[in-house]
Amino acid sequence: MAGPLGLRFHVLTFGCQLNENDSEKLAGMLAEMGYSEAAGPEEADLVVVNTCSVREGADGRFFGHLGLLANLKEKSRPGMLVAVCGCMMKQSVHLERVRKSHPFVDIAFGTSDLHRFPELLQRRLSGTRRVFEVGDEDAIAEGLPVVRGFRFRALATVMYGCDNFCTYCIVPYVRGRERSRPLPLVLDELRRLAAEGYPEILLLGQNVNAYGKDLGGADFPVLLEEAGRIQGLRRVRFMTSHPKDMSVRLLDAMARSPNACPHLHLPLQSGSDDVLRRMNRGYGRDQYLGLVAEARRRIPGLAVTTDLIVGFPGETERDFEDTLDLMDRIRFDGAFTFQFSPRPGTPAADMEGPIDAATVTDRFDRLVALQNAHSLASNRTVEGTVQEVLVEGSDGAGTGRASGRTPHNRLVHFRVPDGTAPPPEGAFARVRIERARTFTLDGTWEGPA
Ligand code: SF4
User: 43 lies in which domain range?
Assistant: First the structure.
C-alpha cells in the first residue's frame, strides 16, 4: 500500500503485555504504510490509543488522555488524526461515549479488527469523516508486520481470549473465547526471532497454559519443549498461567527444556476456598498448595510469583486470614497485589457484601507488608552469589550502571568498573549480588556470561 511518506505516528498503550504486542503490530503496519515513529503525540500526525479495560482506573486515564489529545488537536495540530482501539472499544458504553462526546476521534476499532487498521486508516484518508468499526470476528490474523519495542525480549502472543469467566474479570467479554495459533506458525515466529538475535521470548496469552486446547493437537507442554530445541534462544518465559490448567506434564516440560526460565507466575487471587468459589476460579487452596509443592519438587530453585486480590465482595476477616496463611505456607518470591474494584458487566460488580474502603485498605496494607517480607527474604537467598543477568538497559548515560533480570526474574541493578562501558541491552552479564532489597538486587558486573 502506498504510504504517506513523511508522516509520523505515536501509539499510546494501556494495559498488559498482550496490548503491548498488539501495539507493536500497529507500529509495524504503520511503518509498512510509510509512517515513521514520533517521540510523542506533540510531534505526531496520527496518534493511536490502545485501550485496556482490565487494569483499575484505565477507563478514567483513557478519557483523561483523550481530553489532552483534543486540546492538542485544537490548539496546535489541527490536522492530526486520532484512532482508538483495544478492549474498551469492545464495550458499547465506552464506544458510544467516544462516538458522541469526542467528535475529534477519527477512527475506532476493536481488538478483533487490528489487522484491518490500514484499510480503516485509508478510508479516513480518502475522505470518510469518521470510521468506527468494531467487529465480533474472533479469527486470528497471522503475518502482521511488527516493530518490536525491545531488543532484549520479544513478545509472542500464542493464544487469544479466555474461556474461564472469573467473576471479576472483563477479559472473556472483550477478548472473546480461547483461540490458539497453530503450532507450526508459532514455532516459525520463534525461530525467526531467535535468528534475529532476540535472547529471550515471552510467550503470551490471557490463559497461556490452555494453549492448544481448542485445536485438539499440540498443547502448551509440547510448545515449550519445541521452543527448547530452538538454537540460539537462551530464555523462554510465559504469562499468564491459570492454576486449573497447570499440569505435571507442563512442569516436566519446564524442567526439561534448556531455555525455559525457572520462574512460574501462577495467580492465586485468594487463599479462601469460599472466595475462590465465588470468583469462579476452578480450584481450591489445597489444590493450589499441592501444585506449588509439585512445581518446586520438579524444578528445584523455582521462583513462584502470584497475583492477589483483597476485598472481593463478601470477603470476611477469616477469608482474608486464609490468604495470609497460604502466603505464609508458600512464601511467594513476589506478588502483584490489587484491591478489588468492580468491572461493570461482570458478575462480581453486582455481588452482595461490598467491603468498606477502610477495611480494604487495612487488609491491603497487611497483605503487602507480609509479601514485602517474603520478597526480601527471597532476594536475600541470592546475596553473595553470581547471577546471569540479561541486560535490559543502562541506568543512564555516564552512570556506569545498568539493569537486567536473572533467570528467576529478579531485577538487578549493577555497577560496572570505572572505565568499562556498561554492557548493551540484550547482552548477558555475570553479576555478583551484593545487596538484596525488597524489589531489586544491587550488584557488580564481573564479566560477560
Ligand atoms: S483466567 Fe480469569 S482472570 Fe484470567 S483472563 Fe481469564 S477470566 Fe480473566
Answer: 8-133
The structural domain count of the chain equals 3
What is the per-residue pLDDT across 402-424, written as a single tens digit (0 to 9) for each? 999 999 999 999 999 888 888 99
Q: Supply the pLDDT for residue 421.
A: 84
**267-286 as b/e, with b when 16 or more CB fall inside 10 Å?**
bbbbbbbbbbebbebebbbe
What's the whole-model pTM score? Answer: 0.94
Is residue 152 predicted with pLDDT exceeding 50?
yes
CATH number for position 418 = 2.40.50.140
Q: Residues 123-129: what's their mean pLDDT?
A: 94
164 CB less than 6 Å from ligand 1? yes
Pocket lining: 165 vs ligand 1, CB cutoff 6 Å = yes
Q: Which of 18, 90, 166 to mutate to test the pocket of ligand 1 (most atoms within 8 A of CB)?
A: 166
Cβ(311) – ligand 1 distance below 6 Å: no
Do 71 and 111 share a domain, yes or no? Answer: yes
Q: What is residue 4's predicted lDDT score, i.e. its pLDDT? A: 54
pLDDT at 240: 94
pLDDT of residue 217: 86
Q: Which atom of ligand 1 is nearest to the CA of 165?
A: 7
Contact 83, 89 (CB under 8 A): no
- Regarding whether 197 and 110 lie in a shared domain, the answer is no
Q: What's the chain's length in residues? A: 449
Residue 170 alpha carbon to ligand 1 centre in Å? 8
CATH code for position 46: 3.40.50.12160
Cα of 137 vs centre of ligand 1, distance in Å, is: 20
Q: Name the average pLDDT for the chain.
A: 94
Q: pLDDT exceeding 90 applies to what percent of the chain? A: 88
SS3 of residue 394 by DSSP:
strand
Strand order in the sheet with 334-339: 263-265, 303-310, 334-339
Q: Is residue 321 part of a domain?
A: no
162 lines ligand 1 (CB under 6 A): yes
In degrees, to the nearest 5, what angle opens at C-alpha 150 toward C-alphas 147 and 153? 110
End position of a domain, from candidates 99, 133, 167:
133
